[in-house]
Amino acid sequence: MLYRILFLLFSVTFLSACGGGGGVQATTYPNISLSTSTSSVAENSGTTVTLTVTASKTSDEDIIVTLSTSGVATDGTDYSSVNNSSLTISAGLTTATKTFTITDDSTYEGNETITVAISTVSGGSATENGTQSKTITITENESAPTITLASSTSSVAENSGTTVTLTATASQVADEDITVTLSTSGSATDGTDYSSVGSTTITISAGGTTGTKTFTPTDDSTYEGSETAIVAISSVSGASATESGTQSVTITITENESAPTVSIATSAESVYDNGSSLTITATSTQASDEVITVVIETSGTATEGVDYGNVSDIIIAAGATTGTATFNPTADTVNEGDETATISISSVSGADSSTSGTTSVNIIINEYALNTGTQLTYNSSNATTLAATNEFGDFNDGAVSIQNPLEVINAHKAYGYGLTGSGETIAILDSGFYNSHDEFNNKTIIK
């Protein structure tokens, strides 16, 4: 009987605990969520940010919540340390808090984010409520860097060997490298008149405010005049940096060579009117990087375009020191006597050139009267004199009884008419040639 009473009491107690006979009720455990006092905070505000972990119900034991951090901002540097810190929700309570502050530095970093999450939960059989994380944005109070460009000098001698330093300066320290790309222009040629600068870069390292690039002028032997190298900023990247307005520096490379001076010369001072062309040469004292134009003018008793062909202006090409024009005498049938053509430099231009030395030459155009159909004047005395010379007589090799061949062809009479053969080239085909003959004195023999 006693056992029945005890069983009945146990049954009543059990049913009462289960809600009056409605079935067994499942046990629930605390779920943990995370919240923050703000989603945005200025770097220099001094604001304290509060992180709160909340349990969905109380527990009879402490609940420990461990936090982790990620994001652009650096834990322990951009804000006081949060990563791996723990919050304890004491038994019987539902919340716990953690505070941190933002670090106000002088480095531009741009807006940065802190992402705080729950990494682990322990105690009271509590679990994270899904995936809990909060993002706080630290707004930057420094201005983004602006970049200026400067040069160590505004003028450098071509042959000085001086190194020119270009400096890019940021207005603000940044947390990442800033890359400044350069471009060049000006009358000086990048990579030729100075070591290459165009498309090269200057790096301003993170934490710094300056970066440099050096170059040197090239000392050559060509006259170019003073030239300018203009260096500008073509682009800026990194740390949200920008060019401060339009930045460029101009460096003048001063010339050490003297400006060219020009003179002229002729390949011969006289020519028969039916003779070969002569060469007029203009010579510059100095090679230059520009064409030098030598303007020619003519004068004298001979007439350009009639007694000789038109003489062109002379071009001395860039990098060269000479240029030429042709003087071409005109063979005619009119006996005009000897005439003079004066070829002069009228002006020069290009490469800052000027004239010096010989600026005009005279060319005598000898009349070749035999071609003119005009009666020549005969001088019998000249003919007799030539016939009496040893040169004339020896031509017969002493054979008195044999008529001198020169007399047969009347060579001495041609001489009497002024036809001396001077300046003419002849060909003699013979064997046993006597090179030491008086006739060949002061003459060139080509064998």
As laid out across the biggest beta sheet, the strand order is 2-9-7-4-5
Number of strands: 27
Indicate the mean pLDDT. 89
Q: At the fourth CATH level, what is the homologous superfamily of the largest domain?
A: CalX-beta domain
N→C terminal distance: 163 Å
Residue stretches low in confidence (pLDDT < 50, at least 5 long) are 1-23
CATH topology of the largest domain: Immunoglobulin-like
Helix content: under 10%
Strand content: 35-45%
Structural class: mainly beta
CATH architecture of the largest domain: Sandwich
What's the helix count?
5
Q: Give the CA-based shape.
A: rod-shaped
Q: Cα-atom Rg, whole angstroms?
A: 53 Å
**Oligomer, anyone?**
single chain
What is the CATH domain class of the largest domain?
Answer: Mainly Beta
